[in-house]
Each structure stands twice: as C-alpha cells, then as structure tokens.
Amino acid sequence: MNYIVLDLEWNQASDKYIKDYGLPFEILEIGAVKLNRKMKVIGDFDEIIKPQIYHTIHYITTKIINLDKEELENGRPFPEVMQEFLEWCGRDYVFCIWGTLDLTELQRNMVYYGMDELSKGPLMYFDIQKFFSMTYEDGKIRRALEWAVDYLHIEKDIPFHRAHSDAYYTAKVFKIIDAFKPEIEKYVSYDVFMVPQNKRQEIHANFKTYSKYISREFPDKNTAIEDKAVSSTKCYLCGRNAKKMIKWFSVNGKNYFSLAYCRKHGYLKGKVRMKKADDGNVYVIKTLKLVGEDVAEEIREKQDKLRLQRMEKRHMKKEKAE
After folding, report:
1. Which of 51-55, 188-192, 199-203, 239-243 has the lowest mean pLDDT?
2. Which residues pair with 207 in a beta bridge?
3. SS3 content of the chain, % helix, strand, coil (to 5)
4. Residue 14: its pLDDT value, please?
5. d(C-alpha 50, C-alpha 199), whole Å
6. How far apart are CA 249 and CA 149, in angstroms?
7. Which of 58-72, 78-92, 145-159 is least confident?
8. Phi, psi (degrees; rounded to nearest 5) at 191
9. Which of 1, 83, 173, 224 could form a disulfide with 218 if both were Cys (CB 3.0 to 4.6 A apart)?
10. Domains in the chain, please, with CATH?
11. Residue 239 confidence (pLDDT) above 70
12. Which segments of the chain are extended strands (E)?
C-alpha cells in the first residue's frame, strides 16, 4: 500500500449572488506526493485546473495562494485532471492530508461533475495534523502546517501555500512522525461526505483511548437518539455494556452527552454530534471515552445546570400566563 499525501487549493464565489450552492468551493490545483511503505517518495503530481464556475479569484484566495490568471487559463478541466490523478494514485493507497477539509471538497467537486464516487460510504484517511498533535502535543491542539515544519526543524526550501509544496511539507512531517511512532497509523480518520446508507456501511472503530461510531441516516434527531446503536454505551476495551449513570441529554440540540460506568474500566463519557446530510436527514457521530471522576462530575454539573435553566424557563412562562 502507498500513501498519497494530498493538498488542494480552491476558490469560492466573490459575490454571494453568483455562488453555486452545489459547488461552494471550486478546486484550482491538485498537488500530491506518493510515498511507499518505507516512506520513500516514489512519485509527484501537480496540476492546475481551469475555473469553470468562479472565474474571479476571491480576495481571500489571492492572499493565500500565488496563482495568476494566465496560469489558471492554461489549466485543464477538473474531470480530466481528476481522472489522471486517480490513475496516478493506483489501486492500493490511503489518502493523507493536513486537517479534515480537502477530501470533502475533492468529493464534492467530483459529484458536481458527475464522476464516480471515491467510496460508497465514509472514506478512511490519515490526518497528519492530528498525528502531529498526538505525537508532540495533547492530541487536541491543531497547528498550522508551517508551525509543525518549524517545530521539527524541517528545511523550508520551497514556498508554502501551493498545493504541491504543502503536500511536500506534509509528507516530510509524516515521515518524521512515522519513524518515531508507527502505531500512530492505528488512529485513522473518516471523511463523511458520503454518509452510510445502511447498517453495513456504518463505521464502528475502536482505538486505545476512545471509540467512534458513524451512523446511517435518520429522518430526525429523536429517531436517531432512540436508535439502539446510537444510544448504546458499550465499553470499547472489554465490550461489556456499561451501566448508564446519566442518560443522553442535549444542551443545544446538536450535541448530546451521557455518562456510563464499566465495572472493569470505570466511567465512560459519551458524546453524540448530530450532523445534517445533504438530503435533510440527520446522521450521528458518537464517541465514547474513558474519563476520571473529575470529568464525570463535570457532566453531572452540566446536566444539573440544564435542568435548572429549564425550570426557570417554565417558571417564567407560568408567571407570564398568570
């Protein structure tokens, strides 16, 4: 298997009245570096794409990337470049990107032009930005690519903010991380541009420090949270059903929390994020994580605060009615 270290540059509407909601971000450049399992560079890809939707470069885009009008006019159409890119990738590979956005926009551009999808469901990839944080920081902080390059004392021999150059630096960071901590690759990520359409496509992933579940679509939030797979709080280390101490509750209608207790491993914090699919349905990303008594107490306090707020609202409504 090879690693395809990918970076994209894209443009957006310069005016809200010309925005195409089917394609909010139009890809202008695809850059990639291909690494083999030994982390040796075995190929490069760098192509400019001629704009078909947004011909005026947004002022934010011009500040970030150095692409002039002549370069873009000499580019080729997206479907042509994308097909060539996929052939260059080969058959056995995994995408590696800095952050979480590129694969979503890549697939959105493909769908817009009627190309075959990359995956029938969520697409597995390596988030090198996350790997860097897990290796050198707390796993939560997200740094800019140039910050990581400076931290690792990587020579900056080409400019940043072009697709191929950013892929080049991302590959260098990845090579250093992989050399020191190869088990980091177990912490895969999933792009959910293609939401699971049935139970077979759902994602159930267990890691050393947490578990992740990506559901199929549901017609509404209530149906989703009542689903057995969504509401389950099974311990990801031993597989036993953990006793619910606090049932699922929501603060803002988007994020739901719960607290469960595994006899063998302790407290489990549950978090469900409700996501909206393009067709108006909802799907769920659920994480379960072992936590200490301090975090368990925070969840209790959060629920108590919510209860108090609801009581105050009901009391105010009653007073107004009287």
Report:
1. 51-55
2. none
3. 35, 30, 35
4. 63
5. 40
6. 41
7. 58-72
8. -85, 130
9. 224
10. 2-186 (3.30.420.10), 198-310 (no CATH)
11. yes
12. 2-12, 25-35, 41-48, 93-97, 123-127, 189-191, 203-206, 211-214, 243-250, 255-262, 266-276, 282-291
Q: Which of 25, 22, 26, 23 minimizes the C-alpha distance to 48?
A: 26
CA distance 212 to 230: 11
Structure tokens belonging to residue 63: 């500040």
Q: Which residue's structure tokens are 């607290």?
A: 259
**pTM (two decimals):** 0.88
Which three-class secondary structure state does DSSP give residue 168? helix
d(Cα 48, Cα 80) in Å, to the nearest integer? 11
Distance CA(235)–CA(291), nearest Å, equals 12
pLDDT reading at 21 higher than 70? no
What mean pLDDT do residues 240-253 have? 92
Between CA 133 and CA 154 the distance in angstroms is 17
Mean pLDDT of 187-196: 96
* Cα–Cα distance for residue pair 279/297, rounded to 1 Å: 38
To which H or E segment does residue 139 belong? none
Residue tagged 């890691």 (tokens): 207
Structure tokens at 121: 């469901």
Tokens 């004392």 label which residue?
153
* Paired sense of beta strands 211-214 and 203-206, if any: antiparallel
Give the whole-angstrom CA distance, residue 31 versus residue 170.
11
Report the SS3 class of residue 218.
strand
- Residues 130, 166: Cα–Cα separation, whole Å: 16
